[in-house]
Fold NitT/TauT family transport system permease protein.
Amino acid sequence: MATDGAGTARSFAIILIVHLAVLVLWQVLVDAFHVPKFILPSPLATVQTLGTASYAWGANTLVTAIEILGGFALGAFVGVTLAVIFSWAPLLSLVLLPLFVTLNMIPKVALGPLFIVWFSYGIVPNILIAFSICFFPILLTTARGLREVEPDLLDLVKSLRGSRWTLFRKIQLPGSLPYVFSGMKVGAILAVAGAIVGEFIASERGLGYLMIQVQSSLDTPAMVMAVVLLTLLGVALYGLVLALERTFVVGDARQT
């Protein structure tokens, strides 16, 4: 346990040092070559935009965070639920899964105007766009995980007259968790993209909306700051998924 903790701390330190080195190099190069602020602002110039009250960073970041988290949570719930249903009803999987594949091929940018017509402006259509982008990888990876459980274990539980629920709870679910979290990590990344797509198309709040507003005045520092905040939101959601994975997958493996 101590070795694992030291290894984790060392990895985190290396990651932090690399990121800090990139920021320092960015600042040095911008200052050395006198790059105009509207082309590429320095990290210090970017951070200074946080003091501009008219940008309402807190409120806009909160709106985007709600859209990302809402779309991801809905995508994870629907994706895992459908995968479980498909594992219990192969005929239903044969009928519906190809349809989901086809629907997933639709460019989500093209769905944006339709969502606005159907649900008007606001957080809800952006949540739905984020959901439409992130749920499919979760569905596919979870369905694969449920299919790839060892047949011998399934036969053993069936020979002991275990119920379908017992089979799922004791064998299929634990065996599929690595696949579930793999899909969720991909979904976390896509949820950020989905929320921003919605805000770019039509929105009245959020970081994407703010980027569109400051673009006309060539306020590049504010645009870069919005990108940084979006990145931090994505990293936070990805870190949450990693923490859950360590709890439910790595933790279970250590107990066994």
Observations:
- The mean pLDDT is 86.
